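[stage:ingest] chain + small molecule (guanosine-5'-diphosphate)
[stage:ingest] validated
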Amino acid sequence: GKSTLFNALCSKRIAIEFSKPGTTRDPVEKTVRIDETDILLVDTGGFEFQSHDPLYIDVGLKAKFYIQNADLVLFMVEKDKIIDEDLAFLRYIKRYSKDYILVINKCEGKYPELFSKDIYQLGVSLMFPISAVHRENIGELEDFILNKANSSLKSKKIEIPDSIKLTIVGRPNTGKSTLLNSLLKYEKAIVSDIPGTTRDSIEAILELDDGTVFTIIDTAGIRKKSKVNEDLEYFSIKRSFAAIDEADIVIHLIEPEDLVTAQDKKISDRIIQNGKGYILAVNKIDKLSRNLQDSKNEKSRSGSQYSKNEFQQLENIIDQQFPHINYVKKMFISAKEDINLDSLILYAKDLYYRIKGENKTSQLNKILQSIEDKKPILIGNSFLNMLYMIEAHKIPRIFKIFINKDPAQIPSYYHQYIINELREQLNLESIPVRIKFEKRKKEK
Ligand code: GDP
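[stage:predict] done
[stage:export] tokens:
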């Protein structure tokens, strides 16, 4: 009875009513005014939560987006008919919505003191018995919604425990919005401006089949909303910085035509300064290799039909212009054509676990010893002796190494040599690493 309730709340028929499930496939949005407050109502349309029908999958993604972003979810069930599908739905709502209530439909005329056991087993404390068709108890429901709306004008952020915070940054038009939308396989994710909300960043949740959850912090949509008289570049950099600071993993998007610019340098420095997991993604590779465009039919999603040589050339140019990020993973993607996006997201996941990873002190000291043995260095009239090492900070990753010399005497190439070795031996590709030396007096 979702559409019926929706219409009752709108007091106007705009969603098509049928008794067959799944006839209103697309979400219907309508703003209603209740006592001076504008409320955006969304009817998510009928869909089966666990369906594999592509049509339904698309509808499901849209419904999930609304579940994540709404201030309040009305979860509707039939009084005497709780099915497995409801349970799957409710699990999702409990986990991802900001707030929700249970609306029990088809309770006409009788508001039982006790519902069936099935209803209590749903474990929801706030329940509204209604009859959508007969418009019973709708006024009470409206009052509740109104109250809710007035108390959550400033929308709160949802924190999903253990979710990987990811952000996409880059110059305007590098394809950030497109990438976000492709990742969510959902066009409307950031394009729609939900009226009445004052949030200054929009987050989207992406859950992989294996249960890994990403919270994507968006900056792209914001820029489009900014006022014309603001300094666009300044504003976009400011937003990017805030997103970088909040994220665990940053995808820095560039395109083959311009590759790296002064603005990219600023973005890059911020990511490194904060020690975030860093992925440099070259977008729009579908525009490369015009000679290969004829073989479009054979287009695979792995991007393997593109010339490795071409990517290598691009990588060389980036390395020349941006030598300080030679340890950062470069990926070649097309946000629009969905090329290499699977690898991108898998790499991001792997990077996250590596960045959070722990190293045993004994292992660190073994590695330190091997670094010293491999390339001993004479300082003054004796060899540098690296006594032991600790991980002083996780993000940004800082190792502290205790030595027998004055830190100022260590040449920068040796400094770099140690960092490179640590990165390789500790599997820290794409993770900024710093080291600090401290002189330890010999015990007598
Ligand atoms: P943003 O400003 O960084 O959010 O960039 P948008 O996502 O708005 O994209 C800017 C333009 O680049 C749009 O016209 C997109 O269609 C286009 N675009 C984005 N990704 C790709 C891609 O992978 N290939 C091609 N050819 N165009 C793309």
